[in-house]
Amino acid sequence: xxxxxxxxxxxxxxxxxxxxxxxxxxxxxxxxxxxxxxxxxxxxxxxxxxxxxxxxxxxxxxxxxxxxxxxxxxxxxxxxxxxxxxxxxxxxxxxxxxxxxxxxxxxxxxxxxxxxxxxxxxxxxxxxxxxxxxxxxxxxxxxxxxxxxxxxxxxxxxxxxxxxxxxxxxxxxxxxxxxxxxxxxxxxxxxxxxxxxxxxxxxxxxxxxxxxxxxxxxxxxxxxxxxxxxxxxxxxxxxxxxxxxxxxxxxxxxxxxxxxxxxxxxxxxxxxxxxxxxxxxxxxxxxxxxxxxxxxxxxxxxxxxxxxxxxxxxxxxxxxxxxxxxxxxxxxxxxx
Length: 336
What we know:
Distance between the termini: 55 Å
Largest sheet: 4 strands, antiparallel
Structural class: alpha+beta
Order of helices and strands: HHHHHHHHHEHEHEHEH
Oligomer: single chain
Strand content: 5-15%
Strand order of the largest sheet: 1-2-4-3
Helix content: 40-55%
């Protein structure tokens, strides 16, 4: 009863403040929320080790250079200037001097974008030479495509002549598989195809965790899947999305949006490779999330999007009919 009285008093106080401030209440709450987020970020920056700080700076560099690459494709002049390139080249140099690995994707991809961006500018030979010397000195890989590219429509449509409706409609959620672990190479092939999902500024925040060890796979299934449905599951993936690859101002659940889009592509890629899959949605409020992250070495900045049961299908599988709604119910014409 005491708890309920306190709860009631807190709700009354909230309503009182809301009535006094009116529309300003929402703005105040939002300001407090972002103040707490920035304070938490500042404390992490202060307490992080040198290695953690290098990782954070590499992510920051990657975010900024991805914006430049998008600006090159869209001809957005706000990001296309030598001053910006010079600043990012300096960050790149500081990272490499502090021990960052040159073959780290964030580093090598950022270097490739900066090199491409600088090559489009007239003059600025000093900046171009400086970046080239950095790449050469630290042996930064140069096999990464960057910038923008012109494609003929025929190239984009080259692989569209197939029964897409038949392909997507033949996929079903499968909940019983052969007792086999999917080999690592097959998982890599599936993920490689799924990686072509649309992602904001090419941030690519999603990861897929898996294991070839039967005992660890059983542990993943136990922690992430429904105990009743999981009886026929013998292999499982963990799909995450890294919010550190998004700016604070961009968060607005973008990690979940990117994660959901990737998840759709992943499931279709699994189907294309002749395997079955079943999604297990994960409650973000679940206390298991911290346990799972610690157990499987998942970064704090990553959120768990879903668990995916995966495997070779038996000769016959029992699936829900899952009749889809008419397209006219989903696609709403605003002219009607």
